Amino acid sequence: MSKARHLFSAFGIEIEYMIVDRETLAVRPIADKLLAAAGGVPDASDVELGPVTWSNELVAHVLEMKVSKPAKTLKGLAAAFAASVAKAEELLAPHGARLLPTGAHPLMDPFTETVLWPHESSEIYKAFDAIFNCKGHGWANLQSMHINLPFAGDDEFGRLHAAIRVLMPIMPALAASTPILDGKATPWLDARMRHYAHNADRVPAVMGAVIPEAVFSIDEYHARILEPLYRDIAPLDPKGVLRGDFLNARGAIPRFERSTIEIRVLDTQECPAADFALADVVVSALKGLVEERWSTYEEQKAWATSELATIFNATIENAGRAKVPDEYARLFGVYAPSWIPARVIWRRLAMSSLPTMDFDPDWEKALAVLVDQSSLARRILAAVDGDCRPTNIRRVYGQLADCLEKNEPFNVGILGAPYYL
Fold first, then answer.
1. Residues 6+ positions from 327 with CB-CB distance below 8 Å
2. Which residue of 5, 35, 68, 237 lies most exposed, with the fewest beta carbons within 10 A?
3. Which CATH topology does 12-419 take?
């Protein structure tokens, strides 16, 4: 997004997938070979393929797909990304590899299997590695969907930032897809975010509390967040390689060079239809907040970062079952006598947002599974059914890879009813 656009007038979507062996699902650091095959040139870092562009990430086993230019609507993008996935699968087949969805690999050992991207932008990646050690789950084993939303001017920035801050604590309730790491069920349904939240502990200003601070003007953001961040990193980054918006690792970060805010806390789902169903519900909820449909701008701004972070940590652990206080639920027009499960808020938001969404039929099945059966994390646990032997994990994640190829939701039916929600 090269110029300032008004709220919700355009969308930038990025989705990351891991490259794995087709038979064993072991990570395969061959993103450079895939990009070279797609672009027809060696060492390609970005390849534009119609509406979707491919690019590298920090590690060599991850491929990022993103819209080639700002999209005026989310409608139609699921099909475009599904076609892009099919192209990647075709090019990976000669290497005996395929793409794997979800927010993290369940069996990868990032401390021994990580290969950093060695080509363009490698200086930045080496700088991150030197300071933070990128061989860990919070750096090398995570895939997410980023949503970029535009703003034009200070007032729009403030309103969008306020809406994102108050909605972010319950985003993992829908988006969690990482209940298994190191071959075992973790205490968190969104283990990716649990590890991500601590990947920059050496310089706390990089991450903050994940939930952004209560800052609602552009100048204040620079003064209170970015300048202290650059100051704190300077002794470890004397060449200033990391001085830029991208250093900020909060769950949502302004990208001032393109006048957008980038949401970064959504785990990759099982297929593009599911990712875009999730994206549309999130965007529709944010639009309702910005329009003050359920709460005022002043009420949204009043929430302290620490209060929101407490709710966020609860949904990282328990997804839709996480209990949130009634005063928080009222921000979304949901009234309850006391604490309420986060899933109830999302169901109400989905019901109230659906009539106003630019709905895409491609999302229909995926949205029903997401709302009715709950997060992908709980569906994965239902399918694993307590058996975390590597053979069983590979079986389930092989099914998830099939869902990605077919662009179909992971529907576990009645098998995992106790895990739902």
1. none
2. 68
3. Creatine Kinase; Chain A, domain 2 (3.30.590)
Model pTM score: 0.94
CB-count burial class (<10 Å; 0-12, 13-18, 19+) for 89 = middle
For residue 67, which amino acid is it? V
Amino acid at 114: T
- Report whether pLDDT(418) > 50: no
Question: What residue type is assigned to position 48 of the chain?
Answer: E
pLDDT (0 to 100) of residue 1: 43
Cα angle 75-77-81, degrees, rounded to a multiple of 5:
160
Predicted confidence (pLDDT) per residue in 318-377, tens digit: 999 999 999 999 999 999 888 999 999 998 888 776 655 577 888 888 988 887 777 999
Coil/strand/helix, residue 168: helix
CB atoms < 10 A from the CB of 304, how many? Answer: 11
How are beta strands 340-341 and 323-324 bridged, if at all? Answer: antiparallel
Predicted confidence (pLDDT) per residue in 215-269, tens digit = 999 999 999 999 999 999 999 999 999 988 889 999 999 999 999 999 999 999 9
Q: Which residue has the tokens 């690999």?
A: 105
Instruction: Flag whether pLDDT at 420 surpasses 60.
Output: no
Across the range 37-56, mean pLDDT stands at 91
pLDDT tens by residue, 82-114: 999 999 999 999 999 999 999 999 999 999 999
Reply yes or no on whether the pLDDT at 44 is more than 90.
no
Crossing angle between the packed helical segments 272-290 and 364-373, to the nearest 10 degrees: 70
SS3 for 143?
coil
